[in-house]
Amino acid sequence: MQIEQELLIHAARVGDIAVLNELLNGKADVNIKDEKGYTPLIIACYNNQLEAAKLLLANGADVNAQDLGGNTALMGVAFKGYPAVAELLIEGGANLNLQHGNGGTALMFAAMFGRNNLVELLLLHGADTNICDVRGMRAADLAAQQGNVKALELLEA
């Protein structure tokens, strides 16, 4: 199991479609988690491996799986700034309003890290702007704190 997990996670990280196909055709667990709770989908998305993410989703990857900190693939993509992968996850049924351990959401990550194209995308698909993190801060508060004027405008529109 350990070897299969390592191979699947590595193939997802580097976008090795041939290895992913071989493992998945051999009935590898598409939702296997590593020691940090990362699934192959979370890893593929965080590393901007769009084709790998498509393949994993087509093979039953849990689009809303959370790592040990409560982070999802969509949160990772919002942090890194990958709109094409975000679109795929949203189309795949990603919950836009899931919160990680400190209450953060994908929208909060996008606003905090200046990923304004993702702020727009998440808002377009109905992300909730009123969710508060454990400190009582909303995405707009976080954008303001970071001096992200564009995100603040989008969030308050």
UniProtKB/TrEMBL annotation:
Give UniProt keywords alphabetically: ANK repeat, Repeat
- Where does the signal sequence lie? none
ANK repeat segments run 36-68, 69-101, 102-134
Q: Which SMART domains match?
A: ANK
The record ties this protein, via PANTHER family, to: ANKYRIN REPEAT DOMAIN-CONTAINING PROTEIN 39, ANKYRIN REPEAT DOMAIN-CONTAINING PROTEIN 39-RELATED
For this entry, the protein name equals Ankyrin repeat domain-containing protein
